[in-house]
Design goal:
alpha/beta, Rossmann fold, six-stranded parallel beta sheet, 4 helices, 6 strands, 34% helix, globular
């Protein structure tokens, strides 16, 4: 199992992920949810001979420069590399810093991506349900980890 790290600032960057045969994208929500999603993605990836890409969207508030996020970049990289090392399948950690979360997610995903995300019950998770519906409308396949 190998962990690869990619980072990108959100200055209008395009989806530029290498042309892998098949990729399962895990969208980071919470640490607990991401671990659950990584386990589910590993099950899917094993059966499909696919790689996993852990997509982390780090929003940087407008008062700060993109080069100076609120949480230090080194900490964020170390945190998600550690989380990805829990996966039994080769995993790429793709961290993107920017202002607009939805736009960053949309540019980070290839057409018709297979996305695994956590789905917890409760009214406070409305934003995640809304995101999943938006991604489905854009043609992506959503798999819930729970």
């Amino acid at each position: 199992m190998a962990v690869e790290l990619r980072t990108q600032l959100g200055r209008g960057a395009q989806a530029g992920v290498a042309a892998d045969p098949l990729e399962v994208v895990v969208l980071h929500t919470t640490t607990r949810g991401t671990l659950t999603s990584l386990r589910r993605a590993a099950e899917l990836a094993d059966g499909l001979a696919a790689r996993i890409r852990l997509l982390v969207i780090a929003e940087v508030p407008y008062p700060l420069d993109l080069d100076s996020p609120a949480v230090p970049a080194a900490f964020t990289k170390r945190r998600f590399t550690t989380i990805a090392s829990e996966s039994r399948v080769d995993t790429t950690v793709d961290i993107r810093w920017g202002r607009e979360k939805l736009a960053m997610i949309e540019t980070a995903l290839k057409a018709k991506s297979l996305v695994v995300m956590d789905r917890r019950r409760g009214w406070w998770r409305f934003a995640e349900r809304k995101l999943a519906k938006r991604l489905e409308r854009l043609g992506h396949q959503i798999v819930y980890s729970n």
